[in-house]
Each structure stands twice: as structure tokens, then as C-alpha cells.
Design goal:
12 strands; binds iron/sulfur cluster; binds S-adenosyl-L-homocysteine; 354 residues; ten-stranded mixed β-sheet; DNA polymerase, domain 1
Length: 354
């Protein structure tokens, strides 16, 4: 499950780069220079780092590549999202997305190649999990997305391929790197981790002490339905997720958001809305996400827009804050994981010039 190669410079925390510089007999300020080259100037190779001694760069290059991912394919969509397929050093691929929500621009990042949870509506889990991403492979998604736009990507959502809480060490490290004030300097409030709620991973995340936002992918108000929709990987029960919401609030002062993918005829009945309203209580936020179509499960579709609105209105009656999302990016197979699935089955067009 571990990533195969040595981590890139992009995946090292500043303290690790300081230790590396000390070991190579370089003054401490070199670490700050290196860190800024990677995260602020977004240098993709040592060549560009002109204020560092050549011999030092050569020694570094022998230990750590600056980055290990390659931009392979960029897919703009009619609604403005920009999806990037990155090729990893071992030939695997992951996706990341730039979502240009005004006034903020958001980077959506992946944490695994595939996913072991296997939600029935999700392309990421359709073929199981291959491996975890390294911290560098997670950070590089942000850097690669940012390199392709003039807009500053100030928000990060960890909602791409994979279950983030099955890869907590690399996730936590990547988020610490992205929050470093000498680098990208993201605020913790601007980061959201989305999870199906595996209890063991949740405990690990709590111990990391990150004060980020948490989104819990609930999708059903009963365990009977939830275990059909979210079948594997030790995902939590409905009660587990409620407990996580309380504990996250206690630990961070941040209220969680529940996510609920609406699927016609499966979890969109009036009694589902009633049960969900009872379950979330007054204090919680819900994101309702009309299902994006996936090619491997053509029978699963979003309810009609007026039905989604009715479902949302039922929840709002009890004071729940409901955000009914619009579907995005169907035209570039944007429901996460589809571009990767597609790329394995047929060759993609050549990469867009960067
Ligand atoms: N594994 C994590 C994070 C990645 S999925 C999780 O499940 O939370 C991020 C979000 O995308 C989840 O809420 C998931 O339910 C949603 N999602 C997955 N497939 C979808 C689809 N086909 N249509 C709409 N939302 C989908
Ligand atoms: Fe995995 Fe999340 Fe997709 Fe479920 S929705 S299969 S947990 S990536």
C-alpha cells in the first residue's frame, strides 16, 4: 500500500529540509530558500534554483526529485472546472480539480490510487484501492493545479480519489506542508477533509491535531441503507458518524458538514428526509449532492431538480442549514475517479500545452 519511490522535495516538511541541509553541511537559510523554490516559485527541477550552489543541488538531486508527478492531461469543462490527470512515478494516475467558485478558487485533491470503500455510486472505488499516495504526491497536485492558473487557489478540499482517513500520516503531513507560512500558507479554515468515516482513521486524525474542516459522507439515515451504499473498508455506522461530528466539534470548535449524495429511488424518499432531519438535529450543516452519472452504474441517477429542492426544503424546516449543490462537470467525466478509470481503458489525447 505504501508509495513506491523516495518522496519528492515537495513532500518534505520544512523541518525535514532543515535536517537535510544540516546533513549536507549547508547553512540553515538554505532550507528556507529550497522550501520557497518548491512551494512559492513552484520550481519543477533543481535547474531553476539559481541561487543555490550547483554541487549542493547535485547532491540533493541524488536523494530527492523536486517533484515525481507529470501532468498528463488537462480537461476543461463547460462550467469552468479544470481537471488534471497526473501520472505518478510508478505509472499509476490520479486526478485533481480546480473549481473556480467565486470569489474563492478551490483545489480538490486525491489521497489514494483508487479507493477500498467501494461506494456504489463512485467511480473512484469501482476497482478497489491500489495504493496510498505519498505526502509529496498529494502536495504536488496542489502545485500542479496552481501552476496552470493565474487565480490563487486559496481553498483545498480533500474530496478527490480515495479515502483520506485510510492514509492519515501522508494526508496530515501534506496539509502541514500546505499550511506552512513560508510556502503556500493555506489557512486551516480553508481546508476541508471529506471522509466516509472509518473509526480508526478518525482517531488517528484527531491525534494529528489539525484544525481543518471535516465533512462526513453519510448518504443514508439508517445503517441498513448506508451499508448498501457505502459497503466496505470499515466505514463507520450512522451512530459512529454522529459521534465523530460531536468529537470533532469538541476538539476543534468547528461544526462538521454531512454529505448526502441524492440518488433517485434509493435515498431520496420523503421518509429518508424525515429520518435525516431527525438525525442531524439543529446544529449541523448538510451538503446535498445530486448524483453525478457514472458509466459503470447507469441505473443510478440524480432525482429531478424539483425533487432535490423538495428534499432540501424538508430538511430546512427543522432549521438544518442545507446547501443543495448543482451538478458539475458532467462533460469531463467530473464525478471523481472517472477520468482515471477512462485513462486506463483508452489512450487520452496529448497533454494541453502548459
Ligand atoms: N472518500 C471520501 C472523499 C472522496 S469522495 C468521501 O467519501 O468522503 C468526495 C465526495 O464525493 C463524497 O461525499 C462522495 O460521496 C462524493 N461522490 C462520489 N461519487 C459521486 C457521484 N457519482 N456523484 C456525486 N457525488 C459523488
Ligand atoms: Fe471511496 Fe469516497 Fe468514492 Fe466512497 S465516495 S468509494 S469513500 S472515494
Amino acid at each position: 500500500m505504501a508509495p513506491p519511490s523516495a518522496d519528492s522535495l515537495a513532500g518534505l516538511e520544512r523541518s525535514e529540509i532543515e535536517a537535510l541541509c544540516a546533513r549536507l553541511d549547508q547553512p540553515a537559510y538554505r532550507a528556507r530558500q529550497l522550501f520557497r523554490w518548491v512551494h512559492v516559485q513552484r520550481a519543477a527541477s533543481y535547474e531553476a534554483m539559481s541561487n543555490l550552489p550547483r554541487a549542493f543541488r547535485e547532491r540533493l538531486a541524488a536523494e530527492h526529485p523536486v517533484q515525481t508527478t507529470q501532468r498528463e492531461h488537462e480537461a476543461p469543462s463547460g462550467d469552468g472546472t479544470r481537471k488534471l490527470l497526473l501520472r505518478l512515478a510508478d505509472g499509476e494516475a490520479v486526478e485533481c480539480v480546480h473549481i473556480p467558485d467565486t470569489p474563492r478558487h478551490t483545489a480538490c485533491l486525491s489521497t489514494q490510487v483508487g479507493c477500498g470503500v467501494g461506494c456504489i455510486f463512485c467511480a473512484s472505488g469501482a476497482e478497489g484501492v491500489v495504493r496510498n499516495l505519498s505526502s509529496g504526491e498529494i502536495v504536488e497536485q496542489y502545485l500542479q493545479l496552481q501552476a496552470g492558473t493565474q487565480d490563487r487557489l486559496r481553498n483545498v478540499v480533500v474530496m478527490g480519489i480515495g479515502e483520506p482517513l485510510h492514509n492519515v500520516p501522508a494526508l496530515a503531513k501534506a496539509l502541514r506542508i500546505l499550511q506552512d507560512p513560508e510556502g503556500v500558507d493555506l489557512g486551516a479554515r480553508r481546508i476541508t477533509v471529506s471522509t466516509s468515516g472509518p473509526p480508526r482513521g478518525f482517531e488517528q486524525l484527531l491525534r494529528e491535531g489539525l484544525r481543518v474542516n471535516l465533512a462526513l459522507s453519510l448518504h443514508a439515515a439508517s445503517d441498513a441503507l448506508r451499508s448498501r451504499l457505502v459497503p466496505g473498508g470499515g466505514a463507520g455506522t450512522v451512530a459512529d458518524l454522529q459521534g465523530m461530528a460531536d468529537r470533532w466539534f469538541e476538539a476543534t470548535g468547528r461544526d462538521v458538514t454531512f454529505e448526502y449524495v441524492l440518488i433517485q429511488g434509493i435515498n431520496d424518499r420523503d421518509e429518508d428526509a424525515e429520518a435525516l432531519a431527525r438525525l442531524v438535529g439543529r446544529h449541523r450543516n448538510i451538503n446535498l449532492i445530486p448524483m453525478n452519472p457514472v458509466s459503470f452504474a447507469p441505473a443510478l441517477v440524480a432525482p429531478l431538480p424539483e425533487h432535490c429542492k423538495r428534499f432540501a426544503d424538508r430538511l430546512r424546516r427543522d432549521g438544518t442549514v442545507v446547501n443543495l449543490r448543482r451538478q458539475r462537470g458532467d462533460d469531463v467525466a467530473a464525478a471523481c475517479g472517472q477520468l482515471r478509470l477512462h485513462s486506463k481503458k483508452q489512450p487520452l489525447p496529448p497533454p494541453a500545452p502548459s
